[in-house]
């Protein structure tokens, strides 16, 4: 506290503190998340090679409606991004995403663009800012 | 004169300190067309829900989705389905584990209840974790590499920067035996 008082006794100190304060307030108003929503999954093992956009799977949207165990136990999804060797034919047979996306529980598979909605060139993996950016084993 | 300026400065500093609290819910979610994943030119942008529309009404957190998912479920903000097929057995286990041998950190309390409300036993046992207490050889380094707890924490559940949420039991407050605790402690 004494150091701050001594800072206030000269003009440079005032400038220093003012810039600090203004910068801090500006930072408060400009707080922006890094990018993708936490736990978003990009799937692009087959998509772009077959002429459609990569799949963006939002965990946040689904966990409002379903507990983890529904997909990761009943439907057989492995807990590793891109670790499930599945394709559209299996979904049309009512497996994996097709268990719900069948125009019964959720909208049907004919709405290609709602899942295949990613930017070109995205790599398969789990996203969501620096705190999800671990060593890449997910 | 100098003193009154100092007083003003004091009030100003106090204002800066309490400002974040006064400002209320400052959570921000990027809209889908600016998240760096969705194609802003694609036809889905007008049809898909933006995170802020769904998440802003859920109990706030400071990291991850900015949502306390366990709290949202416990307090009834969300009612996610636990099964699709009527025959599926849904198990919730109310049993805490206390892990010692945590070095300088407080002991770890693992609540089975919060985890089994979301997950099935088979999601962890016998794959990620051995059912026998202390048999898995868990280390923090391996968790940070994405194994054990790190399969979910840091990817879909609250990240590993939240040390105290797991390392929550001080050695002073716990003198019992490590391992399974029969009852959830008061205060949860």
Helix-and-strand structural type of chain B: alpha+beta
- Number of discrete helical segments of chain A: 6
Q: Extract low-pLDDT stretches of chain A.
A: none
Q: DSSP strand (E) fraction of chain B?
A: 5-15%
What labels describe this entry?
heterodimer; A: mainly alpha; Cytochrome C3; three-stranded antiparallel beta sheet; elongated; B: alpha+beta; four-stranded antiparallel beta sheet; 4 strands
Briefly say what this structure is:
The complex is a heterodimer of chains A (138) and B (188). Chain A is mainly α and 138 residues long.
Topology:
The complex is a heterodimer of chains A (138) and B (188).
Chain A: H1 2-7, H2 11-29, E1 41-43, E2 55-57, H3 59-65, H4 68-74, H5 88-92, H6 112-115, E3 125-126
Antiparallel strand pairs in A: 1-2, 1-3
Chain B: H1 2-22, H2 51-55, H3 69-74, E1 96-99, E2 107-111, H4 112-118, H5 121-124, H6 140-144, H7 163-166, E3 167-169, E4 179-181
Antiparallel strand pairs in B: 1-2, 1-4, 2-3
What does this structure look like?
The complex is a heterodimer of chains A (138) and B (188). The model of chain A has no long low-confidence stretch (mean pLDDT 86). Chain A is 35% helix and 6% strand. Chain A has a 3-stranded antiparallel beta sheet, with no helix packed on it. Chain A is mainly alpha-helical and 138 residues long. Chain A is elongated and about 75 Å long. Chain A has helices at 2-7, 11-29, 59-65, 68-74, 88-92, 112-115, and strands spanning 41-43, 55-57, 125-126. Chain A folds into 2 domains: 1-32, no CATH class; 41-126, Alpha-Beta Complex (Cytochrome C3). The two termini of chain A are 47 Å apart. Chain B is an alpha+beta fold. Chain B folds into 2 domains: 2-57, no CATH class; 96-181, Alpha-Beta Complex (Cytochrome C3), CATH 3.90.10.10. Chain B is built from 7 helices and 4 strands. Chain B has helices at residues 2-22, 51-55, 69-74, 112-118, 121-124, 140-144, 163-166, and strands at 96-99, 107-111, 167-169, 179-181. In chain B, strand 1 (96-99) and strand 2 form a beta hairpin. The longest helix of chain B has 21 residues, at 2-22. Chain B is extended, with a radius of gyration of 22 Å.
